[in-house]
Design goal:
- Pfam families: Amidohydro_1.
- Its EC number is 3.5.2.2.
- The protein is an alpha/beta fold.
- The chain has a domain of 314 residues: Metal-dependent hydrolases (TIM Barrel), CATH 3.20.20.
- Helices cover 31% and strands 22% of the residues.
- The strands form two sheets. Strands 1, 2, 3, 4, 5, 15, 16, 17 and 18 form a nine-stranded mixed β-sheet that branches. Strands 6, 7, 8, 9, 10, 11, 12, 13 and 14 form a nine-stranded parallel β-sheet that branches.
- Helix 4 packs across helix 7 and helix 7 packs parallel to helix 8.
- The two termini are 33 Å apart.
- Bound molecules: N-(aminocarbonyl)-beta-alanine and zinc ion (3 copies).
- One zinc ion binds next to loops.
- The site of one zinc ion (ZN) has 4 residues, from loops.
């Protein structure tokens, strides 16, 4: 057997195992795993002391998503996939959101055009279902499913996107017929609107009120309701960006009833708190995202959920808005009320280093566990396996080499995203991705992007909706 490239001597994380071996790469795929592979004619990458992990799959990122009037998302496909690559990822999954008056199929066509030629890693696209008219449900979703768009996101909050319970049931019915995956953003819109109006009436308009008007019961109740709707419809669902133990307990109870539920959490719920939204000088706006970060007890509950394997997915929910943009987080409207602060924080580049350092280095999770919740499970659930998400013979050679000894302090000036800040400024981490291979070709080496535009839009196959191991 001859190889184009051999990664020699790394600790290779495969399935449930981590062992020192060589990775033989041919024609963009992993062709062999073994000791002392024959390197005749192959480029050899010496990787002793490094850890080889499947390239990260960040299945929850927002890129060039239409936002409020005048509000511009800080990342397009170029900057988002560049930042993702530097953060050890080889696939991202952003969301296609139709504009006013646009059908879902039209929206997908123009979103794919935005992506094509501008991706430095691969991108697979989720569909946001914000209307349930007969064309969307009866024609667009089935047609799109058949062409590789097999996962849908529904929202229970945000005035312009929230679906009623009935509408969610209608989407779940279509998803069941198709076999699509459904992600739910679970927060109670009516309760949030009531609490916001109350806060504004009292003149309480600071960024910290964003968290206070989206308290834990808002998320816990909506999580319970989403799970009940899924039980009624008889379909698995994924609860995304779970921020606290009470919402996670609802998921555990649903699983005990026999429901298949997938659960996702994000770095912000493991490392930030609502106190960050109360930082001086309007800096708190930099931490406004939904659901909001909670308190240290909720953080501990989310860590327990990771350690116990209750979270299948660890994603960034990268949703970048600049602080200093005309309609950004520090705009006059945002200063007037927390209600107008664009929702979301950047995190696609820092997701993996944060979990590697806080999770693996601190001994909370094993390397195989890290690989599952950062890559393998994403690939399985969203129909990208067995091509993506695993270091296994036959899979795409999407591989990231980590140096577990590097210590770094996260700082905006060294990141590649389009945002003008990072919520993790000054956060110290141990371990950093030092080399990335995309479909077998070197993509990043020692802090340099070696090839531009080598990624592309990839189709999702049939989701694997079974409970993940
Ligand atoms: O604040 C957030 N997370 N904005 C992004 C949209 C979403 O709900 O995922
Ligand atoms: Zn969401
Ligand atoms: Zn999101
Ligand atoms: Zn699971």
């Amino acid at each position: 057997m001859t190889f184009d490239r051999i990664i020699r001597g790394a600790t290779v994380v495969t399935g449930d195992d981590a062992r020192i071996c060589d990775i033989g790469i041919a024609q963009g795929r992993i062709a062999a795993l073994g000791l002392a592979l024959d390197d005749t004619g192959a480029e050899v990458i010496e990787a002793a002391g490094l850890i080889a992990l499947p390239g990260g799959i960040d299945s929850h990122v927002h890129i060039s998503q239409p936002s409020g009037p005048g509000v511009v998302m800080a990342d397009d496909f170029d900057s988002a996939t560049r930042a993702a690559a530097f953060g050890g990822n080889t696939t991202v999954m952003p969301f296609c959101l139709p504009r006013e008056g646009e059908t879902l199929r039209e929206a997908v066509a123009s979103y794919v055009k935005l992506a094509e030629g501008n991706c430095h890693i691969d991108a697979a696209i989720h569909l946001i279902v914000k209307s349930t008219d007969p064309v969307t449900l009866g024609q667009d979703l089935p047609a799109l499913y058949a062409t590789g768009f097999t996962s849908f996101k529904v929202f229970m909050t945000y005035a312009d996107m929230a679906l009623s319970d009935r509408q969610i049931l209608e989407v779940l019915k279509v998803a069941k017929e198709l076999g699509a995956a459904v992600m739910v953003h679970a927060e109670n819109e009516d309760a949030i609107e009531y609490l916001r109006d109350e806060a504004e009436r009292k003149g309480e308009t600071d960024p910290k009120m964003h968290a206070r008007t989206r308290p834990v019961p808002v998320e816990r109740e909506a999580t319970h309701r989403a799970l009940s709707l899924a039980q009624i419809a008889g379909v698995p669902i994924t609860i995304v960006h779970v921020s606290n133990g009470e919402a996670l307990d609802e998921i555990r109870r649903a699983r005990l009833r026999g429901q298949v539920v997938h659960a996702e959490t994000c770095p912000q719920y493991l490392t930030l708190t609502a106190d960050d939204l109360d930082r001086a000088g309007f800096e708190g706006a930099k931490y406004v995202c939904s659901p909001p970060p909670r308190d240290t007890a909720a953080q501990a509950d989310c860590w327990a959920g990771i350690e116990l394997g209750d979270f299948d997915l660890y994603s960034s929910d990268h949703c970048p808005f600049r602080f200093a943009d005309p309609e950004g987080k520090d705009a006059p409207g945002a200063r007037a009320s927390f209600r107008n602060i664009p929702n979301g924080i950047p995190g696609v580049e820092t997701r993996l280093p944060i979990l590697f350092s806080e999770g693996v280095v601190k001994g909370r999770i094993s390397l195989p566990h890290f690989a599952r919740i950062t890559a393998t499970n994403h690939a399985r659930l969203y129909g990208l396996a067995p091509r993506k998400g695993m270091i296994a013979v036959g899979a795409d050679a999407d591989i990231v080499l980590w140096d577990p000894t590097i210590t770094r302090t996260i700082t905006q000036s060294e990141l590649h995203h389009g945002a003008d800040y990072t919520p993790w400024e000054g956060f110290a981490v141990t371990g950093w991705p030092v080399a990335t291979f995309l479909r077998g070709e070197p993509l990043i080496r020692d802090g340099v992007l070696l090839a531009e535009g080598r990624g592309g839009v990839i189709d999702c196959g049939q989701p694997d909706l079974r409970a993940l191991p």
